[in-house]
TrEMBL record:
SMART domains: AAA. The keyword Mitochondrion does not apply. SUPFAM superfamilies: ABC transporter transmembrane region, P-loop containing nucleoside triphosphate hydrolases. It is a multi-pass membrane protein. Residues 37-321 form the ABC transmembrane type-1 domain. Keywords: ATP-binding, Cell membrane, Membrane, Nucleotide-binding, Transmembrane, Transmembrane helix, Transport. Residues 355-586 form the ABC transporter domain. PANTHER family: ATP-BINDING CASSETTE SUB-FAMILY B MEMBER 10, MITOCHONDRIAL, ATP-DEPENDENT PERMEASE MDL1, MITOCHONDRIAL. It is found in: Cell membrane. This is ATP-binding cassette, subfamily B/ATP-binding cassette, subfamily B, MsbA.
């Protein structure tokens, strides 16, 4: 169940807001300023068209009231048509240009966000919810695009209309305009009150919809557990409760929305009564210079200014929300990667040399120290194994070698070169990894293997698949996709894909982290010879729980709570009768028992 987001109160246009808006302008909009200027000119033209329309209408009405000619009336009609044709053309071009400008700005923003995100440390992704990142890259940028594009162009057009038409009305009849304007804030208040109510209920409805969708996602993806534990009824009741909430809120939204039209009608009535009554009085009274044409035109002017004024008030209302949105999106750029290329980092180093950890200190959090001065050397072109109880730090050592995390003290060298003096791309390119968390895409097995080396020939891929004992499965399944996250494959089949990938990547250092743990002993034995071939000539580091699988390693390192407690060959370690021997015997007995 997701928590209701807390209401955030930020002062409008704080220093941060101004800085964010400046950033948005400088980075994504400034280079498009000629287009924006064109849009501004067209918006001004739209405003002037309304003023001209009012002025021509007034002349037209006088032609009618003062017995003018049909030709004069025809000219007025033509002028009105021309004016609206111009406004129509602008009305087509302005959204076209603004949508294009804002979409390309948002495309660039998303591209920058994606590139920035790719550079961030693994640690960032381990502490940030995927939903937050998705929101920034998908919905928040989308909303921002709409805001800097159409919403702002429309608001500008509305502002220009209000200013130009109001100025014209003030010029025509300042007294009547002032009286009408006194009512305007009240109308806007009524409108905003209704739209705020609608927004509130809408917000609750969206929240309920979000909960309902998360509920469906949880139930569907956990269907195996739901069925095994006979929870279908409970889950159905939970989802039905969700749909009930949505029904209630949707009804409330529609009932509140039903208030909009009557309140518009009622508030417009105030203005119309005021203009017709007040203006009519002015026409009848000899003290004012006002005629019928003037009063009708004035009324028309009020109608023209009314909607833009309301929309402008609404726009100002949502402005703050979008400034907050901008801050959220930009916050991803405030995250800085700490694992980067050092100045002067090299791209070539002796990838076949020894890998040495020298007095390495590392912990994921200060409260839980893991390595405090760990030293060990993995011989180049040999097979080394790391064993130890769960949580002793085996996988972490592999992560440190490829700089998924940086050591906090001491150093790691490969072939004598400190790994933080090697460009990240070159360093990581030296490793081929078969890890516990295998990423499988919803594609064919063939494509899943090819993923690690798109340039590989078909023959290479078949060879890798044969080596990893997965070729028969490829033949049987053909091009069929393997389901989201490889849901249609067994754990062992996924591991074989990972092993096939390792065969396909021709990297000098091989890291096998529980690479065969999900394989049955028969399959493990069958691919063992292939794995042995794979390790030849490569520096290989194997992490395994099943000690029998690493018995023939050139060197075995035994870890206990982040410290190296024993090191040697399998037979020597057994003879020593220490921690390794204990682990080995315990495993042997449990296998015998099972
Ligand atoms: N990303 C992480 N963030 C915080 N702590 C972590 C992270 N990864 C591992 N740890 C912690 O660090 C310690 C060592 O973990 P590591 O995965 O290296 O152990 P391991 O020996 O490989 O264990 P296993 O045999 O269970 O795979 C554990 O206590 C674990 O909880």
């Amino acid at each position: 169940m997701t928590k209701k987001p807390a209401k955030i109160k930020v002062p409008l246009y704080s220093a941060t807001d101004r800085d964010n808006l400046r950033w948005l302008w400088n980075r994504y909009l400034k280079q498009r300023s000629p287009w924006l200027l064109l849009v501004l000119v067209m918006i001004l033209v739209q405003g002037v068209v309304y003023q001209q329309f009012l002025s021509i209408t007034e002349s037209g009405l006088r032609v009618i009231f003062d017995n003018g000619t049909a030709r004069e009336l025809g000219m007025v009609c033509l002028a009105v048509f021309f004016l609206f044709a111009v406004r129509g053309a602008m009305g087509y071009l302005v959204p076209r240009i603004t949508v294009w400008v804002s979409n390309s700005a948002i495309f660039e923003m998303r591209r920058d966000l994606i590139e920035h995100m790719m550079d961030l440390d693994l640690a960032y992704f381990e502490r940030t919810k995927p939903g937050e990142i998705i929101q920034r890259l998908v919905t928040q940028t989308q909303q921002l695009g709409h805001f800097i594009g159409l919403s702002t162009a429309n608001a500008l057009r509305d502002a220009v209309t209000v200013v130009i038409v109001s100025s014209y009305l003030i010029y025509k009849n300042p007294v009547l305009f002032t009286a009408a304007v006194l009512v305007l804030p009240f109308i806007i208040w009524v409108m905003n009150f209704v739209s705020t109510r609608v927004k509130q209920v809408q917000g609750e409805a969206e929240h309920a919809l979000g909960d309902y969708m998360s509920g469906i996602e949880e139930t569907v993806s956990g269907m195996r557990t739901v069925k095994i534990s006979n929870q279908e009824k409970v889950e159905a009741a939970r989802l039905e409760k969700g749909t009930g909430r949505i029904r209630d809120l949707a009804t409330r939204v529609q009932l509140t929305q039903a208030l909009v039209m009557p309140s518009i009608d009622l508030s417009s009535a105030f203005v119309y009564v005021l203009v017709i009554g007040g203006g009519g009085y002015m026409v009848l009274s000899p003290n004012f210079d006002m005629d019928g044409a003037g009063i009708i035109t004035f009324l028309l002017g009020m109608v023209l200014v009314f909607d833009p004024a309301r929309l402008l008030a609404q726009y100002l209302g949502i402005l703050q929300a979008h400034v907050v949105l901008l801050d959220r999106v930009r916050s991803l750029f405030h995250e800085k990667p700490s694992i980067t290329d050092a100045p002067g980092a090299v791209t070539t180093f002796d990838t076949g040399g020894d890998i040495a950890l020298d007095q390495v200190r590392f912990s994921y959090s200060p409260e839980q120290p893991l390595f405090d001065g760990l030293s060990m050397t993995f011989k180049g072109a040999k097979v080394s194994a790391i064993v130890g109880a769960t949580g002793s730090g085996k996988t972490t050592i592999l992560s440190l070698l490829s700089r998924l995390y940086d050591v906090q003290g001491g150093q790691i060298t490969i072939g004598g070169t400190a790994i933080d003096k090697v460009k990240l791309h070159a360093l990581r390119g030296a490793f081929s990894v078969v890890a516990q968390d295998i990423v499988i895409f919803n594609n064919s097995i063939w494509e899943n293997i090819r993923y690690v080396n798109p340039e590989a020939t078909d023959a290479d891929i078949w060879q890798a698949a044969e080596n990893a004992e997965i070729a028969d499965l490829i033949r049987a399944r053909g091009d069929a996709p393997v389901g989201p996250k490889g849901a249609q494959l067994s754990g062992g089949q996924k591991q074989r894909i990972a092993i096939a990938r390792a065969f396909l990547v021709d990297a000098p250092i091989l890291l096998l982290d529980e690479a065969t743990s999900a394989l049955d002993q028969g399959t493990e034995a069958r691919i063992k010879s292939a794995l042995t071939r794979l390790t030849q000539g490569r520096t290989t580091i194997v992490v395994a729980h099943r000690l029998s699988s690493i018995a023939d390693a050139d060197s075995i390192y035994v870890l206990e709570a982040g410290a190296l407690v024993e090191q040697g060959k399998h037979d020597d370690l057994l003879k020593k009768n220490g921690y390794y021997a204990q682990l080995y015997l315990a495993q042997k007995q449990s296998y015998a028992a099972s």
